[in-house]
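FAQ

Q: What does a record look like?
A: Structure on top, sequence underneath. For example:
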């Protein structure tokens, strides 16, 4: 009698955002979400993001009502629409995370709980399974709670994260150590080594210090990060500590990373609350970088830094002043899919 051998897990690799992409996914705002008080303004911002993306590559827009959304984003080349009603619009954190395997791409559908149960998220968490027919790649679901904004890959097996997010007991409470979290990241994403930051936060952030608000890989060896030089700012101590931690990190060859500081905006408030405005929440796409701007005196300085960081890509500023009212920004509302995933939703 032949006894089948147990399946051997395929090696996995988590592509970096700066690698070639197939498409970017957006979730459009709707009236049954927290965007309701300024829904038209929010929709216009999402439309500008969709239009910018579609100049370079396909954009898939998840819609509560396709006809309504198409009043903001007209059908056209590189624009596809799929009907599904979500709780909210933070595509970065509730969309699938794609890895490469020897057998092709695999979309990992992690559990999303509204950043540790802060907000209703059942429909968001179910989205990937509901629209899986749009993806020309298989999906697999996980009970492990993980948000795309909480991880940053250099494409070569290194993952940059914060302890405040991944070790927070409001996520995976049964896993209490770095080693336990790292084991899951290695199994699901093929991570070879996790680079942990213990400091860094932004006032008004609901995510428990997602790494994509603080520090990002621009290439395999370069990290840009939010720098605070104003000793009177409430972020000064934490971001200074984060900067020192980044300087202490080493790659797999024992070499330090090239570090490029990003300016910090002036304090921006809405309804008496400081908002998490950050230039680190940019999106890399094929041929361009979309950079959030906030009508702030530091916008031009930030755009100049990105032109230096990405000389081969067009740098496009997108006014994200309305997005930060809901405590996120440009990267938070988008999710890129690598080139090995085929977009199958009709335009």
């Amino acid at each position: 009698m032949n006894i089948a051998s147990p399946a051997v897990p395929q090696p996995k690799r988590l592509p970096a955002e700066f690698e070639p992409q197939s498409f970017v996914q957006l979730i459009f705002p709707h009236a049954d979400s927290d965007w309701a008080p300024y829904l038209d303004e929010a929709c216009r911002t999402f439309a500008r993001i969709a239009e910018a993306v579609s100049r370079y590559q396909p954009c898939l827009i998840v819609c509560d009502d396709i006809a309504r959304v198409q009043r903001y984003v007209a059908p056209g080349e590189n624009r596809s629409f799929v009907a599904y009603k979500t709780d909210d619009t933070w595509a970065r954190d509730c969309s699938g995370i794609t890895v490469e395997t020897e057998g092709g791409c695999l979309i990992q559908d992690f559990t999303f709980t509204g950043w540790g149960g802060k907000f209703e998220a059942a429909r968001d968490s179910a989205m990937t399974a509901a629209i899986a027919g749009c993806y020309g790649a298989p999906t697999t679901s996980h009970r492990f709670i993980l948000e795309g904004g909480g991880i940053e890959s250099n494409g070569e097996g290194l993952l940059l994260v914060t302890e405040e997010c991944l070790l927070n007991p409001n996520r995976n409470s049964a896993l209490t150590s770095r080693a336990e979290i790292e084991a899951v990241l290695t199994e699901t994403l093929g991570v070879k080594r996790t680079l942990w930051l213990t400091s860094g936060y932004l006032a008004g952030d609901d995510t428990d210090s997602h790494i994509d608000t603080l520090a990002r890989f621009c290439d395999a060896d370069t990290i840009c990060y939010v720098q605070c030089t104003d000793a009177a700012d409430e972020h000064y101590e934490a971001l200074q500590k984060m900067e020192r931690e980044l300087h202490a990190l080493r790659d797999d060859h024992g070499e330090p990373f090239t570090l490029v500081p990003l300016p910090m905006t002036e304090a921006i408030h809405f309804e008496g609350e400081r908002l998490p405005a950050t230039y680190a929440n940019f999106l890399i796409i094929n041929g361009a970088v979309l950079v959030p701007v906030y009508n702030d005196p530091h916008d031009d300085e930030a755009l100049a830094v990105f032109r230096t960081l990405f000389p081969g890509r067009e740098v496009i500023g997108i006014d994200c002043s309305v997005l930060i009212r809901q405590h996120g920004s440009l990267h938070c509302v988008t999710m890129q899919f690598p080139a090995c995933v085929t977009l199958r939703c009709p335009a």
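Q: Is there anything notable about this one?
A: The radius of gyration is 19 Å.
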